[in-house]
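Lab notebook, bench 4. Still working through the backlog of constructs that have no structural model yet. Next entry is a single chain of 261 residues. Request: give me the structure tokens for it.
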Amino acid sequence: MEQYLYLSLMPEALVASMLGPEDFASYYAVGSAGTAQGEAAFFELDPGFRDPAFPIERALARCRPHPDGSPKHTVYVSIYRVLERLPIRALGRLFLVTRDGRSLALSRAPLPAGPGARQEGGRRFHLYHELAPTRPEVASSLGPREFFELVTGIGGDFPALPALAFVELRLGELAVDPEKGSAAKLPYEGLGHLRAVLASLAGKELAVKIFDRRGPAAFSFRSIEGGLYVGAAGEELRYYPMPPEAELRSAHRAFWKSANL
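Model written out:
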């Protein structure tokens, strides 16, 4: 049987498995008992990836079939400071997994053109959900690339993270007018607080402010605006876009239907 390596973002961990990506997605979300445990997001890794920072060979030696011949589901290689020690070039496809095990595979694509999305379509504000290594939800007037560069300390003296995986979340009309814009269909708690946080960014020199420092471990995949970004200080920022909603409804119906359960 083949052996696979995965970088889990929810929670952050490096995992070895004998399950292929789709089967691993289902198992990781619902377990062997088949009961919903929660959303998941993970990258498949280059199976040849090795690094002295991780005891991969030792984990693979334990990743063997059970006595009855069934595959070994998970062997945890590392559960601490994984993203920052893993080269971004080792990342393959990204899988988003609903709480009942429906998965959607996303492939890497070029970053949106231009220095950022700050003013696209009159847009002024953004909401980012950090997935690893930290998990707050952060409001910003910076586009994704500029936000990543700020948080990882590129070209500045901000207290930096060594790496970051994050998604941009929908703001609807609040992205342009946080005080008077419609918040219809936005799935966030504390909308009054969100409006105030976004409005406070106007004219703010440091253009980021925490909306939710608790950082919920899970969020609605339907609320993703654009896609997921991942990168490390000194390395490239990668972008994994979500398909358009029409495509999700037609070609990935099972995933889309369960994404809001």
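Notes after review: The first strand starts at residue 4 and ends at 9. The first helix runs from residue 21 to 30. Flag for follow-up if needed.
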